[in-house]
Design brief:
By secondary structure, this protein is mostly beta strands. It is built from 2 helices and 7 strands, in the order E-E-E-E-H-E-E-E-H. Strand 5 (69-82) and strand 6 (88-101) form a beta hairpin.
């Protein structure tokens, strides 16, 4: 089973773009704090790239901003490609099925925004290759 759930804060504002076929694709980067060490020392964070699709991507771009805390659930994927210099590259990313908006940034006026979005997206290989 390929399932992952993460909670953290956005390191930048969401980026929204569209594929050649017109599908909305969003990119988020999430800072997930590591567990504290034995002596309660802060061990920093792990930075995870998140991809959202369709209405989920549009909602994240509309309502989220850098510093906002979110919970993400989805699946882990590995991208592999050949760089311009001929070297092989790899990158893990999470394809989000659901993004829950958690605590606001201290300076946010959250008002009437929604608290969670989910979308089932069965992306085709050709669609993923087009972005």
């Amino acid at each position: 089973m390929n399932s992952i759930s993460l909670t953290g804060r956005l390191t930048r504002d969401p980026e929204l773009r569209t594929t050649h076929s017109g599908a909305s694709v969003g990119d988020l980067r999430l800072a997930v704090p590591r567990r504290r060490g034995k002596d309660s020392e802060d061990r920093g964070a792990v930075f995870i790239d998140i991809v959202t699709w369709g209405r989920l991507a549009e909602s994240c771009a509309e309502y989220l901003a850098q510093g906002r805390q979110v919970a993400v659930s989805g699946r882990l994927e590995l991208d592999e490609w050949k760089a311009k210099d001929g070297s092989r590259r790899q990158q893990h990313k999470v394809i989000a099925d659901e993004v829950e908006f958690l605590g606001a940034r201290p300076d946010d006026d959250v008002g009437d925004e929604p608290t969670a979005f989910s979308e089932t997206h069965a992306s085709s290989e050709s669609e993923e290759d087009s972005f």
